[in-house]
């Protein structure tokens, strides 16, 4: 699962959730639940084929509203479900969107309530489609043509994912998971302050090997960095996340590069850094590594003398990026146990950064909430204690404003 939601991310949002026929309908049950949990009002519309894969009763129970399937259903006083439903929605999300359903949309056909509803949307009402089909069906030129057409008509395609398929084959065509679709929908409603920008984020600890089974690391969980990568992506940026060894789900739409040591993190970051607009270094990079890596496990062999290790200094990745001639807007992190402001200011000056974010680590390592202090040449500002995703969004807002001022 991804980061916990900040409460009510979809509060006040009215989602028309459409299901067309496909085995991925089983995931739509979870999706309806996730959307409701995030605060959305969910109205489900199913095609007759979808009802063969999952019961309308299930979707009704999870959404808390009667499911509508039949355009001739006379429960609406004006008998115009296709008009009423779209006028009462902020967004239409079809998950799963079958090959047949996408083909219908591309042609403007409307022989069931869901396609009729999609066609009757007020202009500008967002339509999000989560394709789900066999890999050959997805790759078929007819499907690709139809997808290109619906995108040209303004729809947004979410996924599909690559992996095992219900038919036993492996490839592109799996519907995204419920939590990914929920996060994509949440992202849809976030302001696009970093549209067209590239953001590079480092996160997590590094692991500096002593021998094949031991190493030096730290307690950084990576949660703050992953939340920042997610928030930057939600804000419309193209995001690359260079992650040390952590077990966290990759935020939806973020490109992830896994590394282990500080040297690997450096090698992943430096060649990409000059192409970025923003670099946010949240990783707790080890300052030192064992100077000599033992090729074999170090044995005690009855010795009573503790081994000693010589350490070599790791390159400062953030300082190296900030010193590039075409340096992106660089944000450093300072996890301090005392004198936060003084230490953060010292880093700002020593590494020549426009912004340092201080927090009172290591008390916050691994927790879902945090308190941040933004320090720049003009002073400092506290972001009050909150969950890490809300803080990350606030930080992204600050960065976007500073970037805009810098480029003006
Ligand atoms: N950083 C980095 N590469 C390193 C070390 C640190 O990119 N080799 C980045 C971190 O990601 C963070 C900032 O620099 O953004 C932290 O600065 P640093 O002076 O290394 O902080 P600490 O090691 O935590 O502080 P100190 O050694 O002063 O206690």
Please, could you describe this protein's structure?
The chain is α/β, with parallel strands linked by helices. It folds into 2 domains: 14-188, Flavin prenyltransferase-like (Rossmann fold); 198-407, Rossmann fold. Helices cover 33% and strands 24% of the residues. The protein has helices at 25-37, 56-63, 81-87, 99-107, 113-119, 135-139, 141-152, 178-188, 223-234, 262-273, 317-322, 340-350, 388-407, and strands spanning 14-19, 41-46, 91-97, 127-131, 156-157, 161-164, 170-174, 198-203, 208-211, 214-216, 238-243, 255-258, 278-281, 288-290, 311-313, 329-335, 355-359, 369-376, 379-387. The strands form 5 sheets. Strands 12-11-8-13-16-17-18-19 form an 8-stranded mixed sheet, sandwiched between helices. α9 (223-234) packs across α13 (388-407). The longest helix is centred in the C-terminal third of the chain and has 20 residues, at 388-407. The chain is elongated, with a radius of gyration of 25 Å. Residues 1-5 have low confidence and may be disordered. The protein binds cytidine-5'-triphosphate. Residues 202, 262, 281, 283, 285, 287, 314, 316-318, 332-335, 347 line the site of cytidine-5'-triphosphate. Cytidine-5'-triphosphate binds next to α11 and β16.
């Amino acid at each position: 699962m991804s980061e916990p939601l900040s409460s009510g991310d979809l509060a006040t949002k009215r989602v028309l959730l459409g299901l067309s026929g496909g085995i991925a309908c089983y995931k739509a049950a979870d999706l309806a639940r996730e959307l409701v949990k995030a605060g959305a009002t969910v109205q489900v519309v199913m095609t007759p084929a979808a009802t063969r894969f999952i019961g309308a009763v299930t979707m009704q129970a999870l959404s808390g509203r009667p499911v509508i399937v039949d355009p001739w259903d006379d429960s609406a006083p004006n008998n115009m479900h296709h008009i009423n439903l779209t006028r009462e929605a902020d967004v239409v999300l079809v998950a799963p969107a079958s090959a047949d359903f996408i083909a219908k949309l591309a042609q403007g056909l409307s022989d069931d309530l869901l396609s009729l509803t999609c066609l009757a949307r007020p202009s500008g009402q967002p339509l999000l489609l989560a394709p789900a089909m066999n890999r050959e069906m997805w790759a078929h030129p007819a499907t690709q043509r139809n997808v290109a057409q619906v995108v040209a008509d303004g729809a947004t395609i979410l996924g599909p994912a690559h992996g095992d398929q219900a038919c036993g084959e492996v490839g592109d065509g799996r519907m995204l998971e419920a939590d990914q679709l929920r996060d994509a929908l949440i992202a849809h409603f976030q302001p696009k302050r970093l549209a067209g920008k590239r953001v590079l984020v480092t996160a997590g600890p590094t692991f500096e090997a002593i021998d094949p089974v031991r190493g030096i690391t730290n307690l950084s969980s990576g949660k703050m960095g992953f939340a920042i990568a997610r928030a930057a992506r939600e804000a419309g940026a193209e995001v690359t996340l260079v992650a040390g060894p952590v077990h966290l789900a990759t935020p939806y739409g973020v490109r992830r590069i896994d590394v282990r040591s500080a040297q690997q993190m450096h090698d992943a970051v430096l060649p990409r850094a000059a192409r970025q607009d923003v670099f946010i270094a949240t990783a707790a990079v080890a300052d030192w590594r064992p100077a000599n890596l033992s090729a074999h496990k170090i044995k005690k062999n009855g010795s009573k003398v503790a081994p000693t290790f010589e350490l070599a200094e790791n390159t400062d990745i953030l300082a190296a990026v900030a010193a590039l001639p075409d340096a992106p807007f660089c944000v450093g992190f300072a996890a301090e146990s005392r004198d936060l402001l003084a230490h953060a200011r010292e880093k700002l000056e020593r590494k020549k950064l426009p912004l340092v974010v201080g927090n009172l680590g290591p008390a916050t390592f691994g927790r879902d909430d945090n308190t941040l202090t933004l320090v720049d040449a003009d002073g400092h500002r506290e972001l009050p204690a909150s969950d890490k995703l809300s803080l990350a969004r606030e930080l992204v807002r600050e960065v976007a404003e500073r970037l805009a001022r810098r480029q003006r």
